[in-house]
Write a structure and sequence with these properties.
The chain is of the alpha/beta class. 45% of the residues lie in helices and 10% in strands. The protein folds into four domains: 5-84 and 243-311, Rossmann fold (3-Layer(aba) Sandwich), CATH 3.40.50.620; 87-240, HUPs (Rossmann fold, 3-Layer(aba) Sandwich); 328-374, Glutamate-tRNA synthetase, class I, anticodon-binding domain 1 (Helicase, Ruva Protein, domain 3); 377-476, Arc Repressor Mutant, subunit A (Orthogonal Bundle). The chain has helices spanning 18-33, 52-65, 88-100, 111-123, 139-147, 194-204, 220-230, 261-266, 270-278, 293-299, 314-326, 330-337, 347-357, 366-369, 372-375, 392-408, 416-429, 434-446, 454-476; strands at residues 5-8, 37-40, 104-107, 153-156, 162-167, 171-176, 184-188, 191-192, 209-213, 236-240, 243-244, 310-311. The strands form five sheets. It has a four-stranded antiparallel β-sheet. Strand 1 (5-8), helix 1 (18-33) and strand 2 (37-40) form a beta-alpha-beta unit. The structure holds glutamic acid. The site of glutamic acid has 7 residues, from loops.
Length: 478
């Protein structure tokens, strides 16, 4: 394959969602694997709905994932500008050409008129398509509408035929254009609407492959008609399967995260998300599940993309994230876990908190869920210190013994294992009941019915604080 040029073309009318991010990843992988170029084009022709804050979110999300683009906004390239709103000059000529060749005509129908047409069609169970009311207006009739001050748009005179194309994922596809009708393509001679803007931009940017979500498949025959009318080159198409929730419902703003950045804020790692998204539709044809970005570039192949919807399995994402968390060194993890730890945790203690929690953490936000007692213990009811049927006297005796041994210990605070071996030895030597000794100690250190083990907490908070907390618990049992 000669150096392909592929693009994603997000509209900045919303945040970067999983669908666009997955399309970006597949385009990126395809480009890198085939020595091609990956381009980002911002489709901001809808000025009312477009917002630069969304463009920023989209680009930030891509950067976070590590999907560097070869050409695009904030990156340059010889086919720019890469925002449609700045490309007006390149639209005028082709639109004029389509008018001259008779492919476009002015339509003066008002939104209300179009709406009643749609209602009428629905009554007769017909597909909603334009009736062709303005298709054959004479020049004097058009002039009359203009004088009435009616607004117009430009429609494409759709020929009745079958449009065929081979999709790299879905195989041979054909569409009967009589179901499409004359669709609108431009507001005026310099403002194309979505389908026409895509076609002109893809041609002028030399795009060779259009890899995008299946939700665009019904636009493809329209775009192919425009390409034919403009005598442009036909790109290859690959439509990626829809991403579905686990109940097979469509993704929505209500059910799913609206921006990819939310995953970052919860403590997902970009490499885990990239790995997870790669498997949303792509079949590696092996048991392997963990892939680095470089490995994906080597192995990715559009021919192995499934047609069936890709089901979102968030438990799998959590597991996968945990696998990537495990590959981090303690130092790396301390750095990336920092935003998830309580702000007032002293540095040395933070290090130990991460060390103790890391085997059980999948998603970084889990570092925060139990971390408060590593900082301090809030007041709690004294009865909580008592294991099963223990009396306050028995509780005090257990805590006094615990204080005694914890005070004497020195190097035991150097690791949770040393503390565990030491306390278990004491239990055995003194003939204590493990529950009656460890429960009050653990609650004294954590204040909670469920927490890390007393060995882990004592290790993290150190001797002084351990003894202080036991003293406080003892006092509360009076
Ligand atoms: N602008 C379209 C979107 O945001 C993408 C168009 C395309 O990939 O052709 O969905």
């Amino acid at each position: 394959m000669m150096n392909p040029r592929v693009r994603i073309a997000p509209s900045p009318t919303g945040f970067l969602h999983l669908g666009t991010a997955r399309a970006a990843l597949f385009n990126y992988l395809f480009a890198k694997k085939n020595n091609g170029a990956f381009i980002v084009r911002i489709e901001d022709t809808d000025l009312e709905r477009s917002n630069p804050a969304f463009t920023k979110d989209i680009l930030d999300g891509m950067r976070w994932l590590g999907l560097a683009w070869d050409e695009g906004p904030e990156g340059g390239g010889e086919y720019g500008p890469y925002e449609q709103s700045k490309r007006t000059d390149s639209y005028r000529k082709p639109i004029q050409k389509l008018i001259t060749s008779g492919h476009l005509y002015e339509c003066f129908c008002t939104p209300d008129e179009l709406e009643s047409e749609r209602i009428e069609a629905a009554k007769h169970k017909q597909a909603p398509k334009y009736s062709g009311h303005c298709r054959n207006l004479s020049e004097p009739e058009r002039q009359k509408f203009r004088e009435q001050g009616r607004m117009s748009i430009l429609r494409f005179r759709t020929p009745e035929k079958t449009v065929r194309f081979r999709d790299m994922v879905r195989g041979e596809l054909s569409f009967d254009t009589s179901l499409i009708g004359d669709f609108s393509v431009a507001r005026n001679v310099e403002t194309p609407l979505y389908n026409l803007a895509v076609v002109i931009d893809d041609e002028t940017m030399n795009i060779t492959h259009v890899i995008r979500g299946e939700d665009h498949i019904s636009n493809t025959p329209k775009q192919l008609l425009l390409i034919e009318a403009l005598r442009y080159r036909v790109p290859e198409y690959a439509h990626l399967p829809l991403i579905l929730n686990s109940d097979r419902s469509k993704m929505s703003k209500r059910k799913n995260k609206v921006s990819l950045i939310e995953y970052r804020n919860e403590g997902y790692l970009p490499e885990a998300l990239v790995n997870f998204m790669a498997l949303l539709g792509w079949n590696p044809k092996s048991e392997q599940e963990i892939f680095s970005l470089d490995e994906l570039v080597q192995k990715f192949d559009l021919a192995s993309v499934n047609k069936a919807g890709a089901v979102l399995n968030l438990e799998k994402l959590n597991w996968m994230n945990g696998e990537y968390v495990k590959t981090k060194s303690l130092d790396e993890l301390i750095e990336i876990a920092a935003p998830f730890l309580p702000k007032d945790l002293p540095k040395e203690r933070a290090r130990k908190v991460v060390e103790v929690q890391r085997p059980r953490v999948n998603v970084l936000k889990e570092f925060s869920s139990e971390a408060e007692y590593f900082v301090s213990v809030e007041d709690f009811p004294a009865e909580r210190l008592l294991w099963k049927t223990m009396t306050p006297e028995q509780g005090r005796a257990a805590l006094a013994a615990a204080k005694d041994v914890c005070e004497k210990a020195e190097q035991e605070y150097e690791s949770p294992h040393a503390m565990e071996a030491y306390l278990k030895d004491v239990i055995q030597k003194r003939g204590l009941k493990p529950g009656e000794f460890l429960w009050p100690l653990r609650v004294a250190l954590s204040g909670r019915e469920r927490s890390h083990s007393p060995f882990e907490i004592a290790y993290v908070i150190g001797k002084n604080e351990t003894v202080k907390r036991i003293d406080r618990a003892l006092a509360s049992l009076k």
